[in-house]
Design goal:
Blueprint: H1 5-8, H2 11-16, E1 44-48, E2 51-54, H3 55-73, H4 80-106, H5 113-122, H6 127-132, E3 134-135, E4 141-142, H7 144-151, H8 156-183, H9 190-201, E5 203-212, H10 225-234, E6 240-241, E7 245-254, H11 259-278, H12 284-291, E8 300-301, H13 309-317, E9 323-329, E10 332-345, E11 348-356, H14 363-378, H15 383-390, H16 394-397, E12 402-406, H17 414-422, E13 428-433, E14 436-445, E15 448-460, H18 465-481, H19 485-494, E16 500-505, H20 519-525, E17 538-539, E18 543-553, E19 556-557, H21 564-584, H22 590-597, E20 602-607, H23 621-629, E21 639-640, E22 644-654, H24 661-690, E23 693-695
Antiparallel strand pairs: 1-2, 1-23, 3-4, 5-20, 5-22, 6-19, 7-16, 7-18, 8-15, 9-10, 10-15, 11-12, 11-14, 13-14, 17-18, 21-22
Helix pairs in contact: 3-4, 3-8, 4-8, 9-24, 10-21
């Protein structure tokens, strides 16, 4: 199982990342599941191009993937977030199998067992396999021999893991072949290369003035119904929903600690203060860990490091043993105990050589090896050369053992960090940690500073069960009295509650932003029976939520009435642009416009037609087009952008360069690669749009 060790450190990667150089949607795991996975069933969860996805069989595939992840991460369970990712991953494979893979098979594209073997031997494998079978002895390069050794193992676990990895490789390869077939029809001409080169090498420096639309009040312009209709028709593609979305309104009854709750927490904090006052310095860490809601932090603070300025000042003014508090910090009471004072540098520049200790029984032998390496260094051999040869920390060994500047905040193991700060500059030492033996060389230190060691004990100000019950009672009463959505909205106004909206939620949205564990709300709002009335009470952490369906946006073109606010905003800005341009009159100078409109003249350099945005301006295609095409010294007519009206002047124009034969060759390849990458994505999206996909996962998850 040695080769699979790297899989265990890339759990999420294995769950998500396969498919070679293709984009994220080109994944694979469903190919070997067989047609039975999509057989008709009363537990129909979805359908892709006429093939039914049965919930029970889909769940079997999810369980298979979850078992793989447990083995890969060496865990007996996986978290809810990973479980959600696996379900999404498996759905993507169902769609992929019945779209890209199905199309590929119709074209006669297949992947044989011999081809799989060849891919493994040549290293043309998925990133997961490449990383899982990297050989540290070969500088971390992929080693097919490790694959062969792993595949030859006969235990059930190894066979299962390899079956998953091989499935991914097979689907990745068949998908890549399909897109290679598509890309074979792509050709870039010399004329295209020359045009792109000219666009990229003709450079303009400009000065400009921007008059934001926000300078004009909405009531200063008139927006006609005809203008709204015209904008809507001209931009109809923008309002095409790829899937149905819904707006969810909700109110939250938060569980907030009462004054009585706060006093109870204060009593606990005062008892901790007494205990900290009586504890010796050595007893403070253990005492805090046993009593505090916040674990002890072994850290040396410089002046100004402690966020509370009063505490920061007192800890440097008082003697060790001083206790301050309780004081309020956020949602807890804090008691601070000054443990000690010292002088330390902020950071230490070090290198190290790691001798790993995999078996405690080898401790003496590994210590002897570390001692001998240190002796060799002391005899005059360069430390960096020894690190490159002997260190088992492959990351730093490639850089002669260099770790750079070590600080306490970087989170190194305490034993290692303490040794770095305790060792004089220019000296070496050996320290044992959970990783093994470290030979540490300290090169230099920053100057000594006064530092304090402070123990902070925190007691959360928790709502009591009574407080929680009172919040629930309010939510329950509100829900019970306002089951009709109209009464919900009316009651929100009467009681002056905050009505929040989660807009454009899809059936597969996992959570409402800012509301933990809110999947149940989304499921109910997509349940055609439950969504007809206001919900019951959902308990979401320290809040109780009541929800109501506020709007449905069907799949397809959204009517103007639904997108009216977006259309009105765009048409209003356009009208403001016309008003600003009318105020400017004849434009002859950027400086004159700036003076007229009380604005500042700004500059932007290196503008060309191939750029996506202008620094300081942002994504403004119209501005880029005008700026790149202006003659030197010329002033533009006012340009209506997305957020402002701009007047530009070209201050320096660098003409396009003459393309060289070498540029034609290299640029043609780069342009071709870019087009192929876009084509793969666009072809897949086009196939999805033309596919008949029915997604009812919301009924099951």
């Amino acid at each position: 199982m040695a080769a699979i060790q790297s899989i265990r450190s890339h759990g999420k990667l294995i769950g998500i990342c396969v498919g070679g150089a293709l984009v994220a949607f080109i994944l694979g795991d469903f190919l070997t599941s067989g047609a039975t996975l999509f057989g008709a069933s009363q537990t129909k969860m979805g359908e892709v191009n006429g093939n039914t996805i049965d919930y029970l069989q889909f769940q079997d595939e999810v369980s298979r993937r979850e078992n793989f992840m447990k083995i890969a991460s060496q865990r007996s369970t996986i978290g809810s977030e990973m479980s959600d990712e696996i379900k999404e991953y498996c759905w993507e494979q169902a769609v992929l199998k019945n779209t890209i893979v199905a199309n590929a098979e119709k074209q006669g594209i297949m992947v044989t067992g011999d081809e799989i073997a060849g891919l493994v031997q040549t290293g043309n494998v998925t990133p997961t396999i490449r990383q899982s079978f990297a050989n540290p002895e070969k500088g971390g390069a992929y080693d097919p021999a490790l694959v062969s050794a792993y595949v030859s193992q006969t235990d059930a676990r190894s066979r299962f893991v390899w079956s998953v990895l091989e499935d991914e490789l097979r689907t990745s390869r068949i998908t890549m072949k399909y897109f290679e077939m598509v890309n074979a029809g792509i050709y870039v001409t010399n004329a295209e290369v020359e045009r792109e080169f000219a666009q990229r090498t003709q450079i303009s420096d400009i000065k400009y003035v921007a008059i934001p639309y926000s300078d004009i009040k909405n009531e200063e312009v008139t927006v006609s119904e005809a203008a709204l209709q015209k904008y809507y028709k001209d931009n109809i593609a923008r309002f095409d929903n790829s899937t149905e979305t819904r707006d969810i309104a909700y109110v939250s009854f938060d569980v907030i600690a009462s004054q009585k709750d706060s006093l109870k927490s204060l009593e606990v904090a005062n008892s901790i203060k007494e205990g900290l006052s009586n504890a010796t310095a050595d007893e403070v860490p253990a005492y805090i860990n046993s009593k505090s809601d916040v674990p002890y932090s072994d850290f040396h603070y410089s002046k100004g490091d402690i966020s509370n300025p009063i505490v920061d000042s007192l800890m440097f003014a008082e003697a060790p043993g001083f206790v301050y508090g309780p004081y309020v910090s956020g949602s807890r009471y804090v008691v601070a105990r000054l443990i000690g004072k010292t002088q330390l540098p902020d950071s230490v520049r070090v290198s190290h050589i790691l001798i790993r200790l995999a078996n405690p029984a080898d401790s003496l032998a590994m210590k002897a090896k570390a001692d001998s390496i240190l002796d060799v260094h002391k005899s005059g051999v360069d430390f960096g050369a020894l690190a490159a040869q002997f260190s088992e920390d492959s990351g730093s060994a490639r850089d002669s053992g260099n770790l750079g500047w070590v600080t306490e905040r970087l989170g190194y193991i305490k034993e290692f960090s303490d040794a770095c700060f305790a060792t004089p500059a220019g000296a070496t030492t050996i320290v044992r940690t959970g990783y093994g033996y470290h030979i540490i060389k300290v090169f230099e230190k920053t100057r000594l500073k006064d530092k304090v060691s402070v123990g902070f004990a925190g007691i959360d100000i928790r709502p009591s069960q009574q407080t929680r019950q009172e919040a629930y009672a309010l939510a329950s009463e509100f829900s019970g009295l306002n089951r009709d959505p109209k009464k919900f909205d009316q009651a929100v106004q009467e009681k002056q509650l905050v009505r929040r909206i989660a807009p454009n939620v899809t059936s597969n949205t996992q959570a409402i932003p800012g509301v933990e564990n809110s999947r149940d709300i989304i499921r109910d709002m997509f349940n055609e029976d439950k969504c007809q009335e206001v919900s019951g009470v959902y308990e979401m952490g320290d809040r109780f939520i009541v929800a109501s369906l506020a709007g449905i946006h069907p799949k397809g073109i959204q009517p103007l009435s639904v997108v009216n606010s977006e259309v009105t905003a765009a048409v209003t800005n356009d009208a403001k642009g016309d008003l600003i341009i009318g105020k400017l009159g004849n434009v002859n100078s950027v400086d004159a416009v700036a003076a007229q409109m009380n604005k500042t003249v700004q500059e932007a350099k290196n503008i060309h037609l191939d750029m996506m945005q202008i620094p300081g301006i942002g994504v403004e295609p119209a501005v880029i087009a005008v700026a790149a095409s202006l003659g030197e010294g010329k002033v533009s007519a006012p340009v209506k952008g997305s957020n402002a009206v701009y007047v530009l002047q070209n201050t320096i124009l660098t003409p396009a360069q003459q393309i060289q034969p070498l540029n034609i060759t290299t640029d043609k390849k780069q342009i071709s690669d870019n087009i192929m990458a876009r084509a793969s994505y666009q072809v897949y999206q086009s196939i999805l749009q033309q596919s008949d996909i029915e997604d009812n996962r919301v009924k099951f998850y």
